[in-house]
Amino acid sequence: MLNLQNTSLRSVLASIALVLVNPMALRAQTAGPEASKAAIVEMRSISFFPKSVTIAEGQSVVWKNVSYTDHSATSDDEAKSFDTNMIVPKASGQPLVFAKAGRFPYHCKMHGRTMSAVIIVTSKP
Amino acid sequence: MKPIFAVLFLSLASSSCLAYSKPKKNEGPTTAEGPAATDLPAFDYEFGRPIEEGEKTYSWYRKTHADEAAKRLGFDAAAIADGMDTWHWWVGVDNPDFWRDVAKLSGSHLNKTNLRLDVLRMLLTTPRAERFKKLGLINDPDCVAATKPDQFGLTLDRMKDGTLTWDPEKFGYSSGVIGLQIFKNEKFDSKKWSLAQYMDDPKSVEAPYKIGMSCAFCHIGFNPLKSPSDPAEPKWENLTSAIGNQYLREGLIFGQDVPASSFIYQYVSTQEPGTSETSRFPMDSINNPTNINSIFRLADRLKLAKEERITVEQKTLIESMYKNAGVPLDSPIGALGGTEAEPTLKVPHILTDGSDSMGVLTASVRVYVNEGMMHKEWYPSWPLNPFHITDSLKRRFMPKEFDIIHEHRKDPNSPWMQTERRMPNMATFLETYDSFPLADAEGGKAFLSTDKALLKRGKIVFADNCASCHSGKTPEGLTNNPAERKEAWRKLVLSDDFLKNNYLSDDQRHPATELGTNVQRAEGTNAQAGSTWGQMSSQTYKDMRAVPMKIMDFNANGEALPLYNPLSGKNDIDWTGPSAFYRTPTLVGIWATAPFLHNNALGDYKADPSLENRIARYGDAMTKMLWPEKRLGIKSIKVTSEDSSFPELFPEMLKTIKFLDGLTLKLLYLPKGMPVNLLMNLNPKHFPELVEAYIKGVLNGEPRHKFKSFINSRRDAGMASMLQRMLELNTVPDFIEDRGHTFGSKLSDEDKKALIEYVKYF
User: Is A46 in contact with B44 (Cβ distance < 8 A)?
Assistant: First the structure.
């Protein structure tokens, strides 16, 4: 979750997820019980950790920047179904809920393909 | 003031929080940039220590420069920043593969010279602390020396964690040297990797990284206003991107492992610091390095552009290039004009000989090819293509044009085309450099005279003797009356704003007969029709060069002499070549960039970027400029420092030589004190003639079957005969490097001193 202490306004704005969504796949989540089940992905120097995260439909993901550089988590698809925009060091993005099953590869806009990973969303039984 | 290209580019940065934005708007097809997507090895790059709070990085340097220039000039900051990224990190997509090719070639068993064109090897064997001292390289402030080998045993410098603010697949990681970027090698196989094996034979195994070269490698230098306390560990504030690295030892970068007893070492070590031999690839059979000049006041320079004739095909080329790059046809970088049948292009004169004369866009992209972009297509244009000697022999070392008109721009996403699209922003960035006034340096004012009478005298001397070439401003309404002209120039130079927005050069080509300077550079052939860059020079340039010109030297009285002959010790070389020209260099910042002349041969050199040394070098070079008797003269001829061995030739070339029993290349030692350019200014097709000359010298009329019996006793005679033949076959037998440009030598001592003081203000 976003830590507002010692964070500039710029950092706050940068950390708000501007989700360009395929409404069938994702919906923005600001609060709620699902947020507490969010999978955490670390944004490291030039990698995401873990590189592959498997969650269930309806679960969310939070990207946490533990590195020294700005990073984003931006979906690879042309429609840009999700995009956290740049998250500054020590900040986290808003939780993103993945409402539909599927495979969602993504990358950092600044660092390109070199920094990429995937979210795998499984169907609820 | 609108920048040249800013109207074409929409800024996305004004409301964005992104650290990295792409403001370019391309007219052409939308394509991805960088190399084609391939599977790259999965390892992660290992960073060095994290950046510290408040530490200034490239991001700071970029933003500071872009914001200041945008405010000063009314430009778009995002365009400037994007242009800086191109200048610093763009390697033309595929030039890393060129540098891999030459590493493999020079590391093979065919190469017996020990000349390693292996940049990775250079980085691994030259520790960070030694790079500036040994090779004049500028270390990247965003990197640290490795404290231990990485996972592959490499001890390359590491980027500080937090400094990578770009896509490394497109721009690479910094190698630790600015302008050399490392890229993951798609052919790397960790199971096969061995560092020891690579160092023994780079052809035998693929390294984890390839190395690419960007413009900044040659063009970045130390900020004359803020010298680094330690040149090996500069901070970003100690650097400036377009002054030219006047300390670069280009030849030695490749010749480190070569023993002094090899002629190859003698060749590379005599290359002047701060020069680049841009016709080494492809060779023009002239050893003619040229200074890496500063880039100042680009917009003012472009106002001096003149119309030159181009061909109809070149016109079509320019139209296509401008469309791809999003540049209007009447752009100041090269405005199209004339008629359909007789088109013209208004061009600045780029490169010291003004041969790059198809506008800024063509000239800029061409340099990327010169660094290895599209090398597979480039090699066949080389007179001596080391990757295909047989073909070179078949062509008798005749070059071919690198064909952008018909071939290399067909693919809209070729490296050439991608690079074209980057150039407008890069030009916008380059436009932002004005000058480095000495008064703005810490302690600089102490070196500036404030004696008004002295400075006025200096201005008058400049007006009377220098300004007609070294001013971008000219008096209005100049007549042909000498007295009126003199008065008009004095009035202009004495005006308060004479130096403001003055490029301090007319940017015109002046004939070598007028200048008297060494013509080796100006006699270069690569921009001639049928040669590698033939499509990138104007028809006007080609026509100018087609007129023969007798090349003379001049004595102290200004009387013309034949060229100096180092074998006879007399001025007895009667030589005529194609017309040769140099374009007037700018004098902006001249106080900081000595030695002088196009080849950096005038004045002593010292690898010290301090203010004090810059002033000392300036004083020394200006003294030698104005008191030519103090120059090295004959001693400026590049000579070997010891006896050295004749270069080993490729096997295919050896086959063309008629050897005799007992004769090998090992016999052909090159004596100490021999002018390097006796051999280096030779077309390789003549090598068999050199050997034949040696044989004739040894035999001295005796029959050929007796050669072996004279092999030791007449060795010197053989050498003398061979050296004489080298002189006869020399492409440009002009050996004295620091001759010429003796304007002002007849002035009084007091006038000269006044001039020296005034020019410090440039």
Answer: yes
Class of residue B432 by CB neighbours under 10 A (exposed 0-12, middle 13-18, buried 19+) = buried
Across chain A, which has 125 residues, the per-10-residue mean pLDDT values are 39 44 42 64 97 95 97 92 95 95 96 95 88
Instruction: Determine, for residues A70 and B165 on separate chains, whether the beta-carbon distance falls below 8 Å.
Output: yes
| Cα–Cα distances in angstroms (integers) from residue B25 to residues A107, B12, B82, B327, B425, in the given order | 23, 10, 12, 10, 10
The whole model's pTM is what?
0.91
Coil, strand or helix at B309: strand
pLDDT at B81 over 80: yes
Q: Using the 8-state DSSP alphabet, how is residue B680 labeled?
A: H
Contacts of B150 in chain A (CB under 8 A): none
pLDDT tier for residue B257 given thresholds of 50, 70 and 90: confident
- Distance, in angstroms, between A2 CA and closest chain B CA? 17
Residue A121: which of A61, A31, A43 has the closest Cα?
A: A61
A68 in B contact zone (CB under 8 Å): yes
Dmax (CA) of chain A: 43
Ordered domains of chain A (ranges, CATH): 9-122 (2.60.40.420)
> Strand ranges (DSSP E) for chain A?
26-28, 39-43, 48-49, 52-56, 60-65, 74-75, 96-98, 102-108, 112-122
Report which secondary-structure segment, H or E, holds B300: helix B298-302
Tell me how far apart the alpha carbons of residues B732 and B723 are, in angstroms, rounded to a whole number.
15
Q: Which two tokens stand for residue B522?
A: 């100006």
Question: Could you tell me if B162 lies within 8 Å of chain A, comparing CB atoms?
Answer: yes
How far apart, in Å, are the Cα atoms of B93 and each of B42, B43, B217, B275, B508?
21, 21, 16, 25, 34
**Closest of B638, B643, B646 to residue B664, by C-alpha:** B646
Residue at token pair 């480039």:
B378
Going by C-alpha positions, the residue among B309, B519, B319, B513 that lies closest to residue B405 is B319
pLDDT at B100 over 50: yes
Query: Which residue, B168, B228, B218, B585, is CA-closest to B370?
Result: B218
| Contact at CB, B163 and A114, closer than 8 angstroms | no
Cα distance between residue B465 and residue B35, in whole Å: 52
CA distance B238 to B219: 14
- pLDDT for the residue B663: 82
Non-local (6+) Cβ contacts of B458 within 8 A are B754, B755, B756, B757, B758, B759
Number of inter-chain CB pairs under 8 A, A vs B: 59
Confidence label for B451 from pLDDT (cuts 50, 70 and 90): very high
Would you tell me how many other CB atoms lie within 10 Å of the CB of residue B199?
17
Q: What does the mean pLDDT of chain B come to?
A: 92
| Closest residue on chain A to B170 (Cα) | A112
- Contacting residues of A for B22, CB less than 8 Å apart: none
Average pLDDT, chain A: 80
**Shortest CA gap A69–chain B (Å):** 5
Environment class of B126 (CB within 10 Å of its CB; exposed 0-12, middle 13-18, buried 19+): buried
Q: Does B20 lie at the interface with A, CB-CB under 8 angstroms?
A: yes
Which of A47, A68, A86 shows the shortest C-beta gap to B19? A86
Q: At what angle do helices B359-370 and B312-325 cross, to 10 degrees?
A: 80
Q: CB under 8 Å to A44, separation ≥6 — which residues?
A: A66, A67
Domain extent listing, chain B: 651-674+683-729
Cβ distance A45 to B170 less than 8 Å, yes or no, reads no
**Can you tell me the distance from the alpha carbon of B213 to that of B216, in angstroms, rounded to the nearest whole number?**
8
